[in-house]
UniProtKB/TrEMBL annotation:
Official protein name in the record: Kinesin-like protein
Protein residues bound to ATP: G145, Q146, T147, G148, S149, G150, K151, T152
GO cellular component terms, semicolon-separated: kinesin complex; microtubule
The keyword Nucleotide-binding appears for this protein: yes
Keywords linked to the UniProt accession: ATP-binding, Motor protein, Nucleotide-binding
Similarity remark: Belongs to the TRAFAC class myosin-kinesin ATPase superfamily. Kinesin family.
Cited SUPFAM superfamilies: P-loop containing nucleoside triphosphate hydrolases
GO terms for MF: ATP binding; ATP hydrolysis activity; microtubule binding; microtubule motor activity
Family annotation (PROSITE patterns): KINESIN_MOTOR_2
Compositional bias (Basic and acidic residues): 38-73
Domain Kinesin motor: 21-411
C-alpha cells in the first residue's frame, strides 16, 4: 500500500446475490489518537499489529525484526508482503523463539489510519447501502470492537464535534452522512417523480438497569420490543432537513458514558439508531417501507484494566460497583450476540432447512432487535465495522474482535426485498393494529383485580405497558402518514 492517504475505491455493487456474505470492514485506529488508557504505550510489549489493503496481522515484534521484507510505513506499521489468499484466518510460526501470529484476510476492505471520515464513508460502501435501502431492502451497519477503538467515532463522529458548526462537517461519521444523503435523495425523487415520503429517526440504548430499551428522546418513558421484534413506544422524529438531522444526531450526547481505565468516554450501553423510510410511489399508488439500522455496540472490556482490581467489588462505592456491573453485562450481551452468530453459522454448515431454528434470539434486548435482520426468513443487508487498536498491549482484545468479525463474514444470507403494499391497504392495516392494541388495553383495564387486592400481576402489567407503547407508536404513525403521504 503506498504511503499517504489511501485512494477510496468503491466496492462491488450492492445487488444482492443468491448467497450473499456479510460485509466486514476493518478500520485501523491511528496510534496515539486518544480515547483513554487503551492507546497509551507501555514497556515490555512484544506484539505488533500490521496491515495492508488485504488483511490484518498480529505478530511478535521479534518476528518483525527478522523479516527481511519488513517495510516501515506510516506510524511505524509494517506493510509487509501480500497475504496468501484462500484462508480467512490462520496461525503461522514466527521467527525462531517467537510466538504464533494471527492473520485475518476476510475483510472486504481494510480502512487505514490515513483515511478520514469521508474516505471511510466511501470505502465501506455506504453509498451502495443507501441505494439498497431506497430500493426496499433493510440495511444494518454494526460497529463492534474493544472499548476505545473508534466505534462511536466511526458511527457518529468524535466526542468534540459541534453539531451546530458547519466547520465540523468533515468530522461527521457514517450516520449523519448517510441520513443527509437519504434525505437529499428523497427530496430529489419527490421533485422529479412526485413520490412523497416519510423519513423518521429513533435513537435507543439498551441499559442494564431497565427491562426494555431507553428512548433518548423520552428518557422518562420506556420503549419495548414486541412479539414481532419491532421497537414500540419510541419517539419517531421526522427528518426532512439537514438541520433536523443534525439536531437528531446530537442527542447521542445524552447517551450513558463513563470514564474507565481504558477509555475516557466509554459507552455504557448499546446504542441503536433506526432510520425508517416510507415512500408513496405515485406511479403505482403503493407504499414501500424499509429500515436502516446503525448499531454502536458497547466496547468489550478487560475488567482488570478498565476498573483496576475488581476482586473486592462489594467494598466499593455504589458508582464504582455500577460501572463494574455495566462492563460485565456489556461483555455478557456481546457474548450472547457471538453465540447467536455461531449458532446460525452452525445451522448453515449442517444444512438445516430452517437456519433460525434453535437460535436464542430472545435472551437479551440486543439480539431481539437484530432478530429481524439476522433471521434468514427476513434477512437484511448487514455490514460490520471492526475498529482495531495498534497499541501493542491491546493485541488480545484486538484478536478477539477480529475473530468475531470472521464469524460474521462466514454468514451467507440472501437479503429480502420488502414488498410494496397499496396505500389504502397499508393505512387500513395500521389502523386495524391500532384498534387491536386499544381493545387489548380495554380488556386488561376491565379485568378483575386479584383476590389479594394487589392489582394485576407483573406479567399482565408488563403486557399492558407493551400494548400501550404499541398504541402510541401506531397512532403517531397514522398521523404522519395522513399528513405526508
Amino acid at each position: 500500500m503506498p504511503e499517504g492517504r489511501a485512494e477510496p475505491t468503491v466496492p462491488a455493487p450492492h445487488v444482492p446475490r443468491k448467497s450473499s456474505r456479510f460485509s466486514v470492514y476493518i478500520r485501523v485506529k491511528p496510534l496515539g489518537a486518544g480515547g483513554g488508557g487503551g492507546e497509551r504505550e507501555r514497556e515490555g510489549q512484544t506484539h505488533r499489529l500490521t496491515y495492508d489493503s488485504e488483511g490484518v496481522c498480529i505478530k511478535e515484534s521479534r518476528a518483525r525484526a527478522s523479516n527481511p521484507e519488513h517495510v516501515e510505513g506510516e506510524e511505524g506499521v509494517s506493510e509487509g508482503p501480500p497475504w496468501r489468499k484462500g484462508k480467512a484466518a490462520k496461525a503461522a510460526k514466527g521467527a525462531k523463539g517467537g510466538k504464533a501470529l494471527h492473520t485475518f484476510t476476510y475483510a472486504r476492505k481494510v480502512v487505514p489510519p490515513s483515511s478520514d471520515q469521508a474516505d471511510a464513508y466511501t470505502l465501506m460502501g455506504v453509498p451502495d447501502m443507501i441505494d439498497a435501502v431506497l430500493d426496499g431492502y433493510n440495511v444494518n451497519i454494526m460497529a463492534n470492537g474493544q472499548t476505545g477503538s473508534g466505534k462511536t467515532h466511526s458511527i457518529f463522529g468524535p466526542p468534540t464535534v459541534d453539531w451546530t458548526s458547519p466547520a465540523c462537517a468533515p468530522d461527521y461519521g457514517l450516520l449523519p452522512r448517510a441520513a443527509m444523503a437519504i434525505c437529499q435523495r428523497l427530496n430529489e425523487m419527490q421533485a422529479t417523480t412526485g413520490d412523497t415520503y416519510v423519513l423518521t429517526g429513533a435513537m435507543l440504548e439498551t441499559v442494564w438497569s431497565q427491562l426494555g430499551v431507553k428512548d433518548l428522546f423520552a428518557p422518562e418513558e420506556e420503549a419495548f420490543i414486541n412479539a414481532q421484534h419491532e421497537v414500540v413506544g419510541a419517539v419517531q422524529v421526522p427528518l426532512r432537513t439537514p438541520s433536523a438531522i443534525l439536531s437528531f444526531v446530537s442527542r447521542v450526547e445524552d447517551r450513558a458514558t463513563r470514564a474507565t481505565g481504558m477509555n475516557d468516554t466509554s459507552s455504557r450501553s448499546h446504542c441503536v439508531v433506526q432510520l425508517r423510510i416510507w415512500r408513496h410511489l405515485k406511479a403505482s399508488g403503493k407504499v414501500r417501507h424499509s429500515t436502516f439500522n446503525f448499531l454502536d455496540l458497547a466496547g468489550a472490556e478487560r475488567l482488570s484494566e478498565a476498573h483496576q482490581a475488581y476482586a473486592n467489588a462489594l467494598d466499593r462505592p455504589p458508582k464504582e460497583r455500577q460501572a463494574l456491573m455495566e462492563g460485565m453485562l456489556n461483555n455478557y450481551t456481546l457474548n450472547i450476540l457471538q453465540q447467536v452468530v455461531e449458532q446460525i453459522h452452525d445451522n448453515m454448515r449442517r444444512g438445516v432447512k430452517d437456519v433460525g431454528s434453535g437460535v436464542r434470539f430472545r435472551q437479551v434486548s440486543l439480539t431481539r432487535i437484530l432478530n429481524g435482520s439476522l433471521d434468514p426468513k427476513n434477512a437484511a443487508m448487514t455490514a460490520m465495522i471492526v475498529p482495531v487498536s495498534q497499541a501493542p498491549h491491546n493485541w488480545k482484545p484486538t484478536r478477539d474482535a477480529l475473530v468475531f468479525g470472521e464469524s460474521m463474514a462466514k454468514l451467507r444470507m440472501k437479503p429480502k426485498r420488502q414488498r410494496t403494499v397499496p396505500y389504502g391497504a397499508f393505512m387500513k392495516d395500521i389502523k386495524r393494529r391500532h384498534a387491536e392494541s386499544a381493545a387489548a388495553l380495554r380488556r386488561i383495564d376491565c379485568a378483575p383485580i386479584s383476590r389479594a387486592g394487589k392489582g394485576h400481576d407483573n406479567k399482565t402489567y408488563k403486557y399492558r405497558k407493551i400494548r400501550l407503547a404499541e398504541s402510541k407508536t401506531l397512532r403517531q404513525l397514522v398521523d404522519m402518514m395522513e399528513e405526508c403521504l
